[in-house]
Task: inverse folding
């Protein structure tokens, strides 16, 4: 089947303008439409105040759908958070978590979203216990595959078995393109420099990332104790050696920040997308900085889109700008321009 | 080239009970990307001019309701979320409040989103001017 890749924007991308009060929900929709994207992804908890009450309100929903109509947009994905540690003295019971997942599926369907994004911390039992309900409201549950997690890993295997055991099209993966970083984002490096990082330490960290990439990342294991899984993953990928080298080179706080941050990015072979294409119905097109020549400086967009074409992907690429977090401490963030450039870069890769 | 605004510049003032100045208040925005129930706000730590404020002397107000940090642990009502991009008001008990003039505040917002393996800590620092007493 030939690929049909559609372009979406996650309103997460506009968070800095929203934070400053320069854009409201409607403003974000208007900007999305201007980029040429046809679809929109929403974090209800980010831009709908008094969550989840307004979504239950018919007048609110009428306004939502009339705005979508006005700007010619279709809902692509609803980002849920499964706040299963909403109280600090316990984790919600399995039944409570399933009820929360069902609530979120229902909210997604009320706003017209065909897909719900759930986070890597979602226990398998919660997904399994929600599948029948997901089918009844026609909303697919997509598990975000976000660095340090990856496809074709021990972590992903368990979820694959769950799909196969239940023979369900209502559960699958939402890869985040942060798992296809060919190098660390330049905006992160520049932030480290502004904070006083030394060029020798920057070279050590960049070199360590390059060697992780060349050798192949040791992949993360499934463990509900995410802290433990994450630390094992970091150690297996040379955290200690890198930190020792930074220490030896006289690294200070800015150098250590750069070194530690390097583990929030990872590289997987884009062919992982081809292997798993039957289970992928949405993609977070994470990006950090697109140049004026429409080149993303860390994520391998051309290689990823080529793999998706080979695989015959039929879903969305949803722009998710995250470079602002490396700028906002020191300067203004222009998410609007970044998303515009990113959509153009995606368009060129898809149509090229 | 200016970084993001965290504290409301004109949001600092002394608080009174009758004639007495009992403390001060300020307003700031949560350094996270979505609104959240106060129950995942694990702590607000405050140092004013280098002096650490006791946790029990801190209250947070959202949507006109005020909670101690201890009370905030169980607040899950949708009307009292700390909304993304909105200021919360923090009340600090401190006899006599703050003298007119320049002060330095360092506060740490600590929140625990369920999916994160560790708590998020955002250090928020600024200098500000406490206006003189107009009474």
Result:
């Amino acid at each position: 089947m030939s690929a049909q890749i559609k372009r979406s924007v996650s309103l997460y991308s506009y968070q800095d303008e929203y934070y400053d009060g320069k854009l409201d929900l409607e403003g974000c929709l208007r900007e999305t439409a201007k980029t040429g994207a046809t679809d929109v992804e929403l974090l209800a908890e980010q831009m709908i105040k008094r969550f989840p009450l307004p979504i239950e309100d018919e007048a609110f929903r009428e306004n939502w759908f009339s705005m979508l109509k006005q700007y010619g947009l279709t809902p692509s994905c609803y980002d849920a958070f499964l706040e299963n540690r909403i109280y600090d003295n316990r984790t919600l019971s399995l039944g409570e978590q399933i009820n929360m997942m069902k609530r979120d599926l229902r909210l997604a369907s009320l706003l017209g979203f065909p897909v719900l994004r759930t986070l890597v911390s979602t226990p398998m039992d919660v997904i399994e216990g929600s599948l029948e309900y997901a089918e009844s409201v026609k909303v697919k549950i997509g598990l975000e595959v976000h660095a340090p997690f990856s496809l074709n890993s021990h972590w992903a295997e368990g979820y694959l078995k769950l799909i196969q055991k239940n023979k369900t099209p209502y559960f699958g993966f939402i890869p985040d393109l942060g798992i296809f970083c060919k190098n660390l984002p330049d905006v992160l490096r520049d932030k480290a420099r502004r904070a006083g990082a030394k060029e020798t330490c920057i070279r050590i960290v960049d070199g360590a990332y390059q060697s992780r990439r060349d050798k192949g990342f040791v992949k993360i294991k499934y463990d509900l104790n995410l802290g433990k899984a994450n630390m094992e993953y970091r150690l297996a990928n040379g955290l200690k050696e890198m930190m020792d080298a930074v220490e030896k080179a006289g690294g200070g706080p800015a150098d250590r920040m750069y070194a530690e941050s390097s583990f929030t990015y990872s590289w997987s072979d884009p062919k992982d997308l081809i292997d798993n294409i039957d289970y992928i119905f949405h993609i977070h097109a994470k990006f950090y900085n697109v140049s004026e020549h429409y080149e993303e400086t860390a994520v391998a967009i051309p290689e990823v889109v080529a793999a998706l074409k080979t695989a015959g992907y039929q879903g969305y690429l949803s722009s998710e700008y995250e470079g602002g977090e490396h700028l906002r401490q020191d300067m203004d963030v222009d998410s609007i321009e970044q998303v515009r450039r990113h959509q153009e870069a995606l368009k060129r890769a898809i149509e090229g | 080239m200016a970084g993001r605004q965290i504290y409301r510049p004109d949001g600092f003032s002394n608080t009174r009970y009758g004639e007495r100045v009992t403390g001060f208040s300020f307003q700031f925005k949560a350094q996270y990307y979505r609104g959240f129930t106060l129950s995942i706000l694990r702590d607000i730590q405050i140092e004013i001019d280098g002096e650490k404020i006791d946790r029990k002397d801190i209250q947070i107000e959202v949507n006109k309701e005020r909670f101690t940090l201890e009370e905030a642990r169980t607040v899950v009502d949708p009307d009292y979320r700390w909304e993304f991009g909105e200021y919360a008001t923090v009340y600090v008990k401190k006899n006599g409040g703050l003298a007119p003039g320049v002060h330095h505040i360092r506060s740490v917002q600590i929140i625990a989103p369920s999916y994160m393996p560790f708590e998020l800590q955002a250090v928020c620092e600024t200098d500000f001017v406490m206006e003189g007493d107009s009474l």
DSSP finds one helix and eleven strands in chain B. The two ends of chain B are 38 Å apart (CA to CA).
